[in-house]
Every structure is written in C-alpha cells, then in structure tokens.
Amino acid sequence: MVAERVVLTIRKELHVMSAQLDALTEQVAANGTVIGSALTLIQGFAAQLAAAGTDPAKLAELAASLKASDDALAAAVIANTPG
C-alpha cells in the first residue's frame, strides 16, 4: 500500500512538472519571437535613419514614426507585464 501511494505521488508530480515544462517551452518560443521582432525593428530604424541622411523633412517623419512605435511598444509592455 505504501509503495502504491509513493507511485501515485510520483505520477502526480510528474504531471505537474510536465505542465510546467510545457509552459516554459512556450515562453521560450515566445521570447525568441519577441527578440527577433525587436531586432528587425531596430535594424529597420537604423536603415531609415541612414536613408533620411540630413534631410529635415525625412528626419521629422522618422521621429514621428519612432514616437508611434515607442508608444505602441510601451503600451504592449504595460499590457503584458504581470501585476
């Protein structure tokens, strides 16, 4: 009887650990996607800055674009940060 309870307890713990591992695996995949997106965004801004050169109108347009992206990113971080 004691052995059966031990086996049952081990099975329950394995189930919990399996669920935790699945959640961790999903989070790692999500983080990889976010990191890739951030890199693409940063590289895109660098290219836009180079393309704008010293043209005041293009630099103003880029500044507006950066502001919009900054606001969207800040909202996403706030919305997805656990309280």
List the helices and strands and how they pair.
Elements lengths: L1 H51 L3 H24 L4
Helix pairs in contact: 1-2
Keywords:
single chain; 83 residues; mainly alpha; 2 helices; 0% strand
Description:
The chain is 90% helix and 0% strand. With 83 residues, it is mainly alpha-helical. α1 (2-52) packs antiparallel against α2. It is rod-shaped and about 80 Å long.
Total of helices = 2
| Average residue pLDDT | 86
Taking Cα atoms only, what radius of gyration do you get, to the nearest Å?
A: 24 Å
Bulk shape: rod-shaped
Strand content: under 5%
| Helical percentage | over 70%
Secondary structure tally: strands: 0
The run of helices and strands is: HH
Question: Could you provide a short overview of the structure?
Answer:
The protein has 83 residues and is mainly α. It has 2 helices and no strands.
